[in-house]
Amino acid sequence: MAERLDVLIVGAGFSGMYMLVKCRELGLKSHVFEAGSGVGGTWYWNRYPGARVDIQSLDYCYGFDEQLEKEWRWSERYAPQPELLAYANHVADRYDLKKDISFNTRVTAADWDAGADGWNVTLDTGEVIAARFVVLATGCLSVPTDVTFPGIEDYKGTIYRTSRWPHDGVDFSGQRVGIIGTGSSAIQSIPIIAESAGHLTVFQRTPNFSMPAHNGPIPEEDFQEWLKDPRAFRARSRYTAGGFWNDPRDEAIAIHTPPQEIKAELERRWAWGGFRILNAFADQAIDPAANKIISDFVAAKIREQVKDPKVAELLTPKDHPFGTKRPCVDTGYYATYNRDNVSLVDLRADPLETFTATGIKTKHNSFDFDAVVLATGFDAMTGAIERIAIRGRTGETIQEHWAHGPETYLGLMVAGFPNMFLITGPGSPSVLTNMINSIEQHVDYVTEIIASLNGRQAGRIEATREAEQTWTDLVDQSAAMTLFPQANSWYMGANVPGKPRRFLAFTGGLHIYSDICNAVRDKGWEGFTIARGDQVLHDSHEFTSLPPPPDNMAPHLMEMAMGRVAKWMQDHGRV
Ligand code: NAP
């Protein structure tokens, strides 16, 4: 590729594909590099049994083209991985995207070229490609953690990772299978593996909260509501905290609600299924007393589903408030422990000591397995970005810049790294939301930035360090107002040894975040420097674009939250 690209996109998941669509609309010469052999990102890699989306499919799909929306029919409320991958391929084929995607090609480095106002990007083929803009559409949960275990190299059976599942599937019929981990990936795969395995042993270090999906065909009333006006349905989803309609009750305060009313509301949401219980009360994510009410309710539900009280007790989370680790959405997870061919090992009481040639030895037991599944998680949010050797304008690397945890402006750009955009990067609402709606918001916004630069005949844009610092402080403060930091979660970087602890997403919600982005734009790209060669065209170091509380949030909670942020900003001389 001798000619310089306008936009080089890393990753052909839902972000990279949509970015390519938008670049083409602007007439930009753009190309995608993808390490996998196909499109789909998360849904390309995570092919483990039972993998399916945990946001309803009517919401978890692109909304940028009404025709596309109307011609695709989801078979279930929560589409399974093969259907999501088929959808990704349908989109790629419909917009003829694959001709501008190089598969099986990993981006290994990117170096800022000051003379050219652009990047030199190195591929694992050794080729170096010049591009004016780089878009890191690398995914939030795309790099598995490097977790390993003593003796694992001596094990003679087969090891599978949920996040790198064989493309032609695995037949566990009659096998003795062990699985390590009880996060979302494990919770989805355990019931399916248990159906065919001779025996399944689950190694649990920390239990998670999980809600029933009640999966099945999309309820007719939901479909009819969507069909009435898909545009309005999408607009409503986008202007919510989570990027999907979850029946929020922003005026409802659990600690002021009589117990029987709380129970009725929680039962209603449990019966509906999925994440709906997350929005039952406005105070549940910020007030420990309110949170305990929900945690106790879910714990009782676990006890109802698991026959053996000792097993139920082990499966009940006690070390984190409900919702502060990503809750799981399951189909038959807890009931799986009622099967004769499933057993649970509590690694807190009986720690894993080593793999052996035939299985796993814990402190008190040893187990023989034909296969072991590692469902041990991801180096979230920063992992994929930091694995590229990115060197910015001052010679600083991204790892150096993020030595104390990721710092970004709007989760979108990094000071010192001009013309490099992160899609749903750290510091944006990202993993706390329906990813597709966040992706579309981000890609649309990046497209606006690029169009605006072209309008001004500008060569580059960069977040100022001051704006980045203010935004990062706001992200930290917003997280500190919630219960999230109380959990040792991947949201906090706690699952990767040595990773700095910092809450990795903006907790203010996609709606508030979108308002902030729009205010930044309307103030003429506040917090950015825009330049051409040596000539600075626009230089704004401030970030002041906090919106007034939106109408759809409990006024007193919002007031409290925003009041705390405003006070903190004042105390720190930000306003
Ligand atoms: P995860 O939530 O990080 O779970 C990893 C599990 O492995 C945890 O139970 C963890 O225990 C355990 N583990 C890690 N290292 C271990 C070790 N050395 N020894 C023993 N146990 C160990 O990862 P995940 O299940 O892949 O899910 C990650 C995220 O991906 C989810 O939270 C969700 O956002 C997303 N996801 C979504 C879907 C969906 O939409 N349907 C499905 C799957 C995943 P500790 O908790 O003690 O660390």
Distance between the termini: 48 Å
Bound compounds, each kind once, are: NADP nicotinamide-adenine-dinucleotide phosphate
Provide the structure class: alpha/beta
Rounded to an integer in angstroms, the radius of gyration calculated over CA atoms is 24 Å
Question: Assembly state here?
Answer: single chain
Helix content: 25-40%
Account of the 3D structure:
The chain is an alpha/beta fold and 575 residues long. Helices cover 32% and strands 17% of the residues. It has 17 helices and 21 strands. The chain has helices at residues 14-25, 42-45, 66-71, 81-94, 184-196, 220-228, 230-238, 259-272, 288-305, 309-314, 333-336, 383-386, 398-401, 435-455, 465-480, 510-522, 555-571; strands at residues 5-10, 30-33, 101-102, 107-113, 118-123, 128-136, 158-161, 176-180, 199-204, 210-212, 328-330, 342-346, 352-355, 359-362, 366-368, 371-374, 389-391, 420-422, 460-463, 528-532, 535-539. The strands form five sheets. Strands 1, 2, 3, 4, 5, 6, 17 and 18 form an eight-stranded mixed beta sheet that branches. The protein has a five-stranded parallel beta sheet with strand order 7-16-8-9-12, covered by helices on one side. It is globular. The model has no long low-confidence stretch (mean pLDDT 94). NADP nicotinamide-adenine-dinucleotide phosphate binds at residues 52-54, 141, 147, 180-186, 188, 205-206, 326, 347, 375-378, 431, 490, 495.
